[in-house]
Each structure stands twice: as structure tokens, then as C-alpha cells.
Amino acid sequence: MKAPISAILRCIAVVMFLSIGAMTAAAPAPASPAASTASRAIARLPASDAAIAEVLRDAARDDAQASCAVACDGRHHYGIRYSVRRLQVVGGEGDLPTALNNLGIVVGYAIANGISYPVVWIGRRGFSLAAPGEINGVALDINDVGQIVGSVYVEAASREEASSWFLGRRRNLGSLGDAGTSAGARGINRSGLIVGGSGIAGGGASYAVVWDRGAPRALPTIGGNIGGAARVSDRGYIVGASTGTDGQQHASLWRPDGSITDLGTLGGQQSWATDINNRGTVVGYSFRPGDVDIAAVVWRNGAIAELPGLGGTSSQANAINEHGQIVGNAGTIENRQYGVTWFNDSPVRLETLLDDESHGIAVANAYAINERGQIAAVRNLSNGGTEPLVLTPRPCRKR
Q: pTM to 2 decimals?
């Protein structure tokens, strides 16, 4: 994409503001008192040009800082340090960044008054995507065009709707069942192919779904009646999980022709795939034998391998980029959880790679990574909530 980042962000910000304003003016079905209160707790996009320009200046300043090399010290033996962009906490009870594109635009959700709302962060500032009457929503992925996918619960229809937002306008993607059937979208690739999951008419089953040219299409399982897709590569390969005849979920890979492969486990009964890159490398997590401990895993050429952790009983790989860098979380023997990245399958606590200005920030989990190496993460707050972060790599040079 050759347009300057400032021009792209400005276009997205301005049009998103106009379209959200139009949706608000359309006066949809009234929300419940609790939902209305929570919705007001999350800011909308600003109306003035000056306010939008301030958002874009923040993003440009962060990008400029990230491009500057810094001096290495003994802590930064990987030749990289991370600056930290602390994103606005817009919900107050937990803000979770789930994905970011190569422009550094972050999506996720925020919880206010016990209700979640889909959010987009531009620069440091977060804005709600929900219209009145839409509650318990999440935004789960975004591509470089600015298309966002997720789901919202629509009170007037009494169902969860798989949703896509483009320039602020939400579209119901539909489901495999009738008008009362719920569905959710979880991933989108560069060309706009969307994946997720959907129930069926009458209930009793739910399947991984791909929305191709607007119509939902069910994907097969490995023998059971439950499946869900998490991410899709630009080549059309889809990952997620589905059940077998024994009802246990296994990480699954769907090829562009619709065929499915059971990716297996580490010896436990269940596993899940969370992401795939265009080289076909898949990451996720699996139970170890005994089904007590959970470990981060990577599949290369269909073979599963456990990623080393930090000595504890749980770890999870959440995302991988085209360079093969993996992010997620891992626990220590003291049962403390940290956000980690794996360099050549070796785990490193992200907080040990932060620059001096960010010293003391404890990264609790890492959820996504883009091709620039930027990482969407969180730190825990004293009130029990979470603060969303963007970690931007800064090359370091020896003094």
C-alpha cells in the first residue's frame, strides 16, 4: 500500500466518524439501561478536524520514534528493544487488543459495566465501533485495507451477529441457520476472506465457517459436530479447531479446497490452533499427557512441536508473523504469567526487551504481531483491569 500512513489513517478516521454518526442518527431499537450507560463510557470518534489531526500526530510520533536506533546494553542481546505505546483504557474493567494490521491500527474490545464493546485504537486513542442496541461485542481481526471483523449481540434481534466493519459501517455477515441463529467472525485476510463459526437452525451443532463473496459456507469437522475457525492466511489456508467422534477438540487445518487435517496434540486430549502465516507455519496450544498442563506449540509441515516455556505448567502461542516470530504468554514455576516472544523457538519475556523509557512495565500477555514486528499486548492494572499496549521494535546498536 503506497499511500502515506497519515493519509490512510485520516481517511479511516474521518469516514468512520461520519458513518458512526449516521448509525447513531438512525435511531435503532433502544438499548437496555445498563447497555446505554456502558455505551456512553466508551468514546466515539471526535467530530472536529483538529481532534482527528491530534490522533494522527500521536501515531506519526510513535512511528518516528520506532525508526530510531538506540544503544544496546546487556539486557538486549537480541539486537532489538521495544518502545511502548500505552493505548487509552476506554472500558475500565478490561481492555484487550486482539489484532493489529501493518499500519499499526489495533482492534479488540473493552469492558464497561460488565458489557464488552468492539474497539479500534488509532494512535493511542480508542473508539467504540458499537451502535446503540449492540452489546457484548468484540473486534477480533483487521486487515491492511481497514476491514474489521468480530461480532455483536443485537438486542432487538436477540442474537449474536457475525460482523464486519469497513470505514465504521457494520454489516451482518449472516449465519448457517435461520434469523435467530448466532454466529461470530474471527479472522480476515488481505483479500477480505472472512472466517469464524456459526450455529445451525435448531441448534445442537456449530461449525467453522468461511464467508466467501458474502455467503457463509460450513467447513467440515474431524468427525464431530462442533468447529470454529480462528485465522486465515492470504493463501486461503484456515486454522482453528473441531471435534472428533469422541467430542474432543483438536487443532484443525482447512485447505482452500475445503479438506480438513487433524493437526493432533502433544498427547493430551485437546489442542487449538490460533494463527497461521503464509509459509504454512501454525501456532497454538495443546494439553500435555494427563490433560493438566497446557503448552504452546508450533506445527511445521504438519508436525507438532512444543515451544519451551518459562518453567511453569502453562503457556500459549497466540500469533505468528511472516518472519516466524511468535508471541503469546507463559507461566513460571511461581505461577506468574508473562507476555513472551519466541526467537528461534526460544522464549524471552517481553518486559526484558523494553527500552529505558518503558522500564518497569510488566507485560502480562501478547496477543498479536504484524509484519513490522509490532506486538499488541497488555499489562495488568491494580483494579483488576488491563491496559492495552503496542510494542514497537527499535534496532539497537552497540555503544
A: 0.86
